[in-house]
Amino acid sequence: MESKFSFFSQTHNLCNLLILVFFSFAPSPLLGRLSFDFYATSCPVAELMVSNTVRSASANDPAVPGKLLRLLFHDCFVEGCDASVLLKGNGTERSDPANTSLGGFSVIDSAKRVLEIFCPGTVSCADIIALAARDAVAIAGGPAFQIPTGRRDGRISNSANVRPNIVDTSFTMDEMIKLFNSKGLSVDDLVTLSGVHTIGLAHCSAFSDRFRQDSEGNLTLIDTSLDINYAQELIKKCPAGGSSTSVTVNNDPETSFVFDNRYFSNLLAHKGLFQSDSVIVEDGRTRKQVEEFANSEESFFKSWGESFLKLTTIEVKTDDEGEIRHSCSFSN
After folding, report:
1. For residue 16, which phi and psi values (nearest 5 degrees)?
2. pLDDT higher than 80, residue 6
3. pLDDT tens-digit map of 218-236
4. Is 270 annotated as catalytic?
5. Class of domain 187-301
6. DSSP assignment of 47-74
């Protein structure tokens, strides 16, 4: 473990430097809208409080980091990074069936409650989601780095916007590239951010399209791109005749709660859980990057910091474009 922590400490400053340089040359809409010291005066303890909340929750439930990362993706890809996924109510993003399995809401709510005590009406729920996901990666063993803050919370949350804006596990490479490009993310970002599957859990229903189910509920592998032994393990964990929506398996069968580069090694071994994972290693446009990340965790971590920054600045709302919610679940 000592060598691992030594690596993190050596790369921490490098990651921060790279992100600062990237931000300096970012497209003009970002400049002047978000900043790395946004809460320096108004709430200097903001990031520490979010980090402590995430660390405490993760100590009680090692699945929390994966939940927080998935929550961030589902927020930023729909209406931008504006915490619209947190709003409760009929017809909201949160009510859509694609989001009913999301978790991590209680962690965001806990951080918000503490911040409202020390810095009332100051820190947005959108910033809390972004910071919590950033901290989740570091707590799970990944790189630690700075991200800018200053996001405002959106007032619009519509379930109809969910399905057209999130990746389905059955997507082809072309479908994923098209969606990522629409968010200002490149093919390199697609491969890098797919590394989120190095942690987290998935319901059996999320990869059921890779199997055929007979009248008695027994599964048979039909996707030849999946390793047969790994497929047999999945079949054992998803019982015949059982509810595939109630059983979960680890996204990464090797190091399920550690943020590392094992996901990419798994892809090369044909152990990507989702069809959308497998196509990344099979496509000539992306295989080289998969191989690079599988061989170098340092390269993956460097790219993760850069792509994560781009993810957390998708269509952000600032100033009077949004609000600072008193409760993350309801608009003011």
Report:
1. -65, -40
2. no
3. 778 898 889 999 999 998 8
4. no
5. mainly alpha
6. HHHHHHHHHHHHHH-TTHHHHHHHHHHH
